[in-house]
Amino acid sequence: MERKKFRKILRRAVWIPFGTALLLAAVLILELQAVTSREKWVEHTDQVIAVAQHLYRLSIDEETGLRAFLPTGDDRFLQPLIESRNQAPQIEAQLEQLITDNPEQQLRNEEVFAARRAWSAWADQAIALSRAGKPTDDLQFQLRGKELMDRYRDARTGFIVREQQLRDERLARSRSMVWYANASILVLCVVVGALLAAFGHRQMMNLSQSFNTALETADASKARVTGIIDCAMDAIITVDQSQRILVFNRAAEQIFRCPQSEALGQPLDKFIPERFRQIHRHHVQDFEKTGVTGRTMYRPGTLWGLRYDGEEFPIEATISQMESHGEKLFTVILRDITERLMSEEALRRADKLATAGELGATIAHEMNNPLAAVTNLAYLIRKNKSLDEKARKQLELLDQEVARMAHMTRRTLGFYRDTASPVTADLGQIMDEVLEIYARKIDSKAIKLQKEYHPHAEATVFPGEMRKVFSNLIANAIDAIRGQGTITVRVRNSHNWNGFPLPGARVTVADSGSGIKPADRRKIFEPFYTTKKETGTGLGLWLSKDIVEKHGGSISVRSKHNGTVFSVFIPAAKSTPVSTQAGGQRQTA
Amino acid sequence: MSATRVMPRGDGPSPDSILASKNPNLEKQDRRRTVLIVDDEYLIADTLADILNDSGEYFAVAVYDGASALQRVRNSGLDVLITDVLMPEMNGIELAKAIKSICPETRIVLLSGQAQTRDLVQQAEREGYRFELWAKPMHPDEILKRLSQKQA
User: Which of A328, A327, A301 is nearest to A316 (CA)?
Assistant: First the structure.
């Protein structure tokens, strides 16, 4: 997951609950305030009532004072009245201030004050009369006084009652406010809680999903890398600083013939021949010091690996290093170069032989003249009549040996010219020519030669090429026999064994040697495969197979412990139209 | 140790070689075909001449270079020329062409130990000449056999 997205989620996860809490707090505070203010108004009303009642009491005190004064005329009884009159203005002012919010009550209050002032005026009148010694018990006068007092009393009571009503109202409202606040807070909390829960849940799901995606991506990435490493053709081995194996891919399993489970955790030494282990450690240490990312591992001479089964084999390797999470890792990538070295060796040998061949050609050239002279001389000497029988016989043998030498040089120089295009030839004849060359060798090895020819076993061939093939087979047969043995050569008309039954000729060369091992039977037609390490090029059968197949034929081998049979089939006619030397085109279906 | 030299080498013609200009038995020579053998290797030329002469069918002379050969052919005709190809100064093919111009009927046999001469012969063939190319060393029996057969 990208950082930005994550930070956004983080921000939301922090601010939304916080914001919601603040909101909730705000709502709570507002509601508390509302309740509190309601309570205050109730108190206010209480205060108004208290003050109003105070004023009322003061008025009562005034009346009481007057009532006592009037009959007695004693100024002492006027004391409450005077005190009340002293206190009243202040308290009246207080009351006036308290009811500024309520115009209705203000009006009533005005009435009350007016009534009070009216009575006060009557009271003053009464007091003045009393002081003047005049009677105050006039009924009308007293009734008026009482009337005024009643009026005041009603007004004041009315005011107070109204105020008490107000109080009840306000109290009720306050109570309902509290209830409302409780309910609304409960609901709000539940709602907000649910929302937060849902929100939190969603964030969690998002986070979890992102996490899973990240895991999957990492897994896929890891799988991809593992896949790449596993299908690599070269062995990839990663070790930690203490040379313990952490990675051992499939190619490594195959090359070292060791399952991964056996290799992981093992020291790399296990796969290095003992005598090189110390050197390898030094090499790695040096490499680590250089700090270079990677390089080819090489020493003078070849590097060697050690297979699980103990076999040593040549390798070519590179080593690289990297740091990962604080630990140092070394990776060795190597390949088994056994085959490559073998083919290099074979090429070198073939090259040597080619040079030798050229040398041979040069020598052969040089030899021809002396050979001609010797041939002639031997011939002339044989003509000498003064020779005894023994000498004659010896000269005969000399003659044959020289002839053999001549054959060899001529063959080396390719003096047997091949035809320009394939011709129909009797394979028996060609085989006889070849056998003549090897006649001496066959005799000297006490090998019995059996020939079974059909007459006119013909095929379309390049005679020179066929000679090479037969020569190869005969030479191999001779080499296969140790001591005594038999070579059987059969030439007959035949058909091939697979595909269309083509007519042609089949030549088999069988020897009574010790046979070819089953494992080798597959390899003998491969280039550079030979059992004659010093003299063999390993190319004879490969070339022969090539020649035979170019003729449209086939070559095969059967072998047991007591002999080997090579079988060559050449079709009578090439499967593609062939232009013969004379006699027109040969068309085939 | 001194050995009696049966065959002189490099000194010139052997006393055993029968030279046309010195042999009194000219009648015998008429029945036999004349063969001139040219090779810068004296031993080969001499032994081959002896072999052909011993057979009784031929009258063979050995020379060792083209110039001598031409000289002889100018003096008298020639039935068969057997010559080496790779020789200093004049090679066998040049000699053959020269002799053909003197004596067109002569059968020309090129005897060579080198495989490359094949190309030279093919080239001459393209120019219209017909020469035989035999590989050295060839067994005397084979040489005699081929000589007795008609030209291929």
Answer: A301
When pLDDT is cut at 50, 70 and 90, the band that residue A414 belongs to is low
Q: B17, B46 in Cβ contact below 8 A?
A: yes
Average pLDDT over residues A147-151: 90
What does the mean pLDDT of chain A come to?
85
Residue B134: closest C-alpha in chain A: A415
Domains parsed from chain B with CATH numbers: 26-90 (3.40.50.2300)
The DSSP annotation for B61-99 comes to EEESSHHHHHHHHHHS--SEEEEES--SSS-HHHHHHHH
Q: Which of B43, B118, B140 is the closest to A379 by Cβ? A: B140
Interatomic CA distance for residues A476 and A530, integer angstroms: 11
* Residue of A413, A415, A416, A418 to mutate, interface with B, max B Cβ within 10 Å: A415
* A431 within 8 A of A454, measured Cβ to Cβ: no
Q: Given the structure tokens 């005011």, which residue do they identify?
A: A159
Question: Which ipTM was obtained for this model?
Answer: 0.76
B114 contacts chain A (CB < 8 A): yes
- CA A27 to the chain's CA centroid: 54
Residues of A in contact with B121 (CB under 8 A): none
Contact A129, A186 (CB under 8 A): no
Cross-chain Cβ contact B51/A379 below 8 Å: yes
Positive or negative, the CA dihedral A286, A292, A293, A297 is: negative
pLDDT level of residue A180 (50, 70, 90 thresholds): confident
Task: Tell whether the model's pLDDT for residue B83 goes beyond 90.
Answer: yes
Distance CA B109, CA A366 (A): 21
Q: Which residue from A324, A323, A342, A322 is spatially nearest to A332, judged by alpha carbons?
A: A322
CB contact under 8 A, A379 and B137: no
* pLDDT recorded at residue B10: 46
C-alpha to C-alpha distance for A117 and A109, rounded to whole angstroms? 12
How far is Cα of residue A76 from the mean position of the Cα atoms in its chain?
114
Is the backbone peptide bond immediately before B13 cis, with ω within 30 degrees of 0?
no
A345-415 to CATH, choices 1.10.287, 2.70.98, 1.20.81, 1.25.40: 1.10.287
Taking contacts as CB-CB distances below 8 angstroms, the residues of chain B near A377 are 43, 47
Token digits for A494? 């035949």
Sign of CA dihedral A448, A452, A456, A457: negative
Question: Please, where are the H alpha helices in A315-453?
Answer: 338-382, 389-412, 427-444
Q: Does B43 touch chain A (CB under 8 A)?
A: yes
- Closest partner residue to A368 (CB to CB) among B48, B113, B139 is B113
DSSP bridge partners of A502: none
Q: Regarding the domain delimited by A232-336, which CATH topology (the fold level of the hierarchy) does it fall under? A: Beta-Lactamase (3.30.450)
CATH number listed for the domain at residues A421-586: 3.30.565.10
Query: Given an 8 Å threshold on Cβ–Cβ distance, is A365 in contact with B113?
Result: yes
